[in-house]
Amino acid sequence: MSDDAGTKTHFDLIVIGGGPGGYGAALYGSAAGLDVAVVEMDKVGGTCLHRGCIPAKELLETAHVFRTVGEAARFGVESSAPTLAFGTTMARKAEVVGTLFKGLSGLLKSRKVTMFSGVGTLQADRSVVVAGLDGERTQITGDAVILASGSAPRTIPGFYVDGTRVLTSDEVFELERLPARVAVIGGGAIGCEFASMLADLGSEVTVLEALPQILPTVDKDVVQTVLRSFKGRGITVQTGVQVTGHTPGSTGTTIHIDGAPDLPVDAVIVSVGRRPLSDTLGLDGTGVLVDERGFVEVDELCRTAVDGVWAIGDLIATPGLAHVGYAEAILVIKQLLGEPAIPVDYAKVAWCIYSRPEVAFVGLSEQAARDAGHDVSVAKHRWGGNSRALIIGDGEGMVKVIAEKRPDGSAGELLGVHMSGPWVTELLGQAYLSVNWEATVDDIAHFVQPHPSLSENFGEAVLALTGRSLNS
Questions:
Q1: Domain boundaries, the chain
Q2: Gap between the Cα atoms of 354 and 60, Å rounded
Q3: Tens digits of residue pLDDT in 132-183
Q4: Residue 77: helix, strand or coil by DSSP?
Q5: Superfamily for 10-153+275-346?
Q6: Distance (Å, rounded) from C-alpha 387 to C-alpha 222?
Q7: 451 assigned to active site
Q8: What three-state secondary structure class fits 60?
Q9: Per-residue pLDDT tens for 35-61?
Q10: In this structure, are residues 13 and 38 in contact, taking their beta carbons and an 8 Å threshold?
Q11: 70, HSE (Cβ side, Cα atoms, 13 Å)
Q12: Domain spanning 166-272: which superfamily?
């Protein structure tokens, strides 16, 4: 049990889980004057900080630096071919994570959030039992309880995770050496990030995806730019395939694919999504409802079926994104404070994928807009004509804007923006605000974009939808 706990047993709010949703609720609530306790069975920061977002992006940045040094001769900077000191790479990853963990822990302490170390289970009347790692059991109560226990990687039959030949994202971040040949099972956001990172660092990579398209929620035109980049870098992508198992060898293993040749590799990364960790919460008999997939059932305000108990983050069937967890945390705290609370519009959250090329989008893809019954106007603007992209030497990808077509044929409200290319994860802000504020093409086209900049591409694409453009 944490030294923070002391003898206090009642709180305004108890949060079970210290990931982004959990610590977000604790920080936002404590800033508003609530007396908050957090129960965490591992380390505060959750999957995102320790085994997800942060270490993944740190390794992707290493891949970016490695690639940049290798291509320096294009800029007239002569140097020998770079080599990768993988041990140093992993040490820097640990340092970044450690620094953020220390800062988060200090921030929670400064906000006087009481930390309990152990597994928290929900009891009647908003009571929580904390089973400490030392065997000690402590019962605490709260005026409100937020369930935010997070998620764990999903696995698939026939692929027992041994941490050597078969890995999930958890084990990838503990690798001691870079595997020469890797298969990534699953072509979603996490799988494509791993594939991109490993290929740039020198691994031979194959992506195996059961669906007809990798990145299934991304606009098809944008997906094609990713596929072209992957192909040009030697990444093999097989879609519409089913893996049936694997046969371990003396070092690596051989993957069996239904209707296709076997694939020998040194390591397999299973990246088929994540499952909610609701089974640790002791919810049976509490009145909190859980669906057949393990997600806690909530309404649009994240309220469970039990009064005074909410659930947020990966524990509920909403986009599994850290920033969505933050938004849900704020939504709940505002309810506790009696303030106006607006439900999260999940159809318009920001999505960022940090592969090469990066992918970022908000709102509907072209196909999704048509399927929803919209008549649409579409503009695409590639990076080949963008001066800033050419200056930095990265012209892959495009900006695609989807707008509602008015009865007179003009383009109206922005329905979606899908991008791939240099730093689009940082460029999404304009598009995010435009879509969420239900701005029209005329609204956005009026604004002046700086030159030369990457952000010009969004402005150019929107301007093209007015029927008059500069560079397209």
A1: 10-153+275-346, 166-272, 357-464
A2: 7
A3: 988 899 999 999 999 999 999 999 999 999 999 999 999 999 999 999 999 9
A4: coil
A5: FAD/NAD(P)-binding domain (3.50.50.60)
A6: 21
A7: yes
A8: helix
A9: 999 999 999 999 999 999 999 999 999
A10: no
A11: 12
A12: FAD/NAD(P)-binding domain (3.50.50.60)
* Residue 359, token pair as written in the block: 């992918």
- Residue 449 DSSP symbol: P
User: What residue has token string 């921030």?
Assistant: 107
Taking Cα atoms as reference points, which of 432, 425, 421 lies closest to residue 457? Answer: 421
Q: Is 352 helix (H, G, I), strand (E, B) or coil?
A: strand
CA–CA distances in Å: residue 467 to residues 267, 369, 404, 409: 51, 21, 14, 10
| Dihedral pair phi/psi, residue 465, rounded to 5° | -75, -15
- Label residues 281-296 b or e (16+ Cβ within 10 Å = b): bbbeebebebeeeebb
The three-state secondary structure class of 184 is strand
357-464 architecture in CATH? Answer: 2-Layer Sandwich (3.30)
Write the single-letter amino acid at 98.
G
- Note the pLDDT of residue 6: 62
Helices and strands per DSSP (H, E), number in the chain:
13, 22
Tokens of 229: 């980049």
Length of the chain equals 472
Instruction: For residue 364, give both structure tokens.
Output: 């509907």
3-state secondary structure labels for all residues of 453-467: CCCHHHHHHHHHCCC
| Tokens 């959990």 -> residue | 22
Of 334, 309, 324, the residue nearest 32 (C-alpha): 334
Q: What angle do CA 214, 220, 221 make, to 5 degrees?
A: 125
Considering the candidates 64, 256, 446, 451, report the single residue annotated as catalytic.
451
E strand residue ranges, 47-126 = 114-117, 119-122
List beta partners, residue 419: 360, 399
**pLDDT-flagged residues of the chain (< 70):** 1-6, 472
> Tokens 């993944």 appear where?
56
Please indicate whether the domains covering 10-153+275-346 and 166-272 agree at the CATH topology level.
yes
Dist CA 324 CA 347 (whole Å): 11
pLDDT given for residue 169 in this prediction: 93
